[in-house]
Amino acid sequence: MRRVLSDSDFRAGFAEMLPACVGLIPFGLVCGVGAVAAGASIWGALGMSAIIFSGAAQIIAAQLLAVGAPVAVIILTCVVAGLRFLMYSAAIAPYLRPLPPRWQQALAFLLTDQAFAAAIRRFDAGANPHAGGLHFLGAGFALWLCWQITNVVGYFAGNLVPASWSMEFAVPLCFIALIAPHFKSAPQIGAGVLAGVAVVALDGLPMRLNLIAAGVVGIVTGTAIELAKDRWTRR
Amino acid sequence: MDASLKLWLVIFVVGALNYVSRLSFIAFFARRSIPPMLARALRYVPAAMLTALIVPMVLPGPPTIVPDVPTPKVLAALVAGGVAWLTHSTLKTLVAGMVALWLLQALAARIG
Fold it and tell me: What value of ipTM does the predicted structure carry?
C-alpha cells in the first residue's frame, strides 16, 4: 500500500487529475443536493457516490427517486446510461491485459469518463502496462476521493449556495464538455440531435421514460446513419 | 416499498451492473474483441444518453415548452458547447458556460 502511494507514476496520475477534480466540484455538490431531494440519508448519499460512482447515474437515480418512479425503471435508465462503460472497457482492455486480475478488477471500478480519457492518453503515449496501471490507479483514486468529498459537502451544505448562482447548471456543462468534442461526424451529430428532440417530444411519458426512450432513439439513429454512410461509400 | 430499502436496492443493483459494464471487456471477454455491430451502437451511447439528460436541464420550465426567445441557459449552453468543441477542456467549458450564464442573466434582468 505504502509502496503504491509513494510510487512516482501513481503520484503523477493523482496530480494530473487535480484540475479535472476542480471541474467536478460543482457537479459533486449538485449530486449531494440531489441525494437530499431524493430523500436519502447521509449513508444513502455516500452509498450512491461511493458504490454507483457515476455522476450521470446518480443524477438519474436522484431525479427518478424524487418523482417516485418504480425501481425497475430507475435501474434500467441508469444501466442504459452506463452502457458507455462497455465501450471504455473494450477500448482500454488491450492495455490492461498484461496486468494481474486483481489490478484489472480494481482499475475497472475506477473506470469513469475522466479517468478513461486520461488513461488512454497515457497508454497511447507509450506507457508500459505497469507504469500506466499505476498512473490510472492514481488518477482514478484522485477522482474517487474528490467525488466522495464533494458529494458529502453538497449533501450538508449544497443548499447554502445562493440559487442565483445557478450551480445546478454545472451538470449539463460537464456533460457538454464530454460530448461536444465527439460532435464531428454526421452519425454522432444525428444521434445527439434526435435524442434531444425525442426527450422533449416524449416528455408526456410517465416516470421520465422519455429519458431512456430518447437514448435508444439516439443510439439507433447514429448506428443507422453510419450504416447508410458505409453502404453509400461502398458503391 | 420502503423508501430507504428502495434507495439501497438501486444503489447495489446499479452499482453492480455498472461495475459489470466497466469490467466486461477488461476481464470477462478479455480474450475476445468486441462484436463490430455492438461497437458501432455503443459509440453513440454518450452522444444520445447525455444529450437526453442535458436538454431538459437547459430548457426552461417543463421541457415541452420550447422558448420563442433563446433563454440565458440555452445561449450559455451553446457558448459552452463551442468552447468544449474547440478546447476539449472540462474546466474551460465550465468557466465559459457559467460566466456566460451569469452575464446573460444579468443582461436579461436589466432588459426586464
Answer: 0.88
Q: Quick one: pLDDT band at residue B66, thresholds 50, 70, 90?
A: low
Shortest CB distance from B97 goes to which of A61, A89, A169?
Answer: A169
pLDDT digits (tens, 9 = 90+) for B2-55: 888 999 999 999 999 999 999 998 988 777 777 888 888 888 988 998 999 999
- B chain contacts of residue A23, beta-carbon cutoff 8 Å: 90-91, 94
Q: What stretches of A82-208 show up as alpha helix (H) in DSSP?
A: 84-96, 101-109, 113-124, 129-157, 170-179, 186-201
Phi-psi region of A128 (alpha: psi -120 to 50; beta: other; left: phi over 0): beta
**A130 and B64 in contact (C-beta within 8 Å)?**
no
Read off the C-alpha cell for B69: 426567445
A157 neighbors A92 (Cβ within 8 angstroms): no
Instruction: Write out the three cell numbers for A137.
Output: 490507479
b/e per residue A115-128 (b: at least 16 CB within 10 A): bbbbbbebbeeebe
Owner of C-alpha cell 417530444: A201
The verdict on pTM exceeding 0.80 is yes
Residue type for A124, please? D
Q: What angle do CA B94, B95, B98 make, to 5 degrees?
A: 80
Distance from CA of A7 to the nearest CA of B (A): 24
Helix (H) or strand (E) holding B67: none
Closest CA to A123 of A95, A88, A87: A95
Interface residue B108 vs chain A (CB under 8 A): no
Task: Flag if B11 and A48 touch (Cβ within 8 Å).
Answer: yes
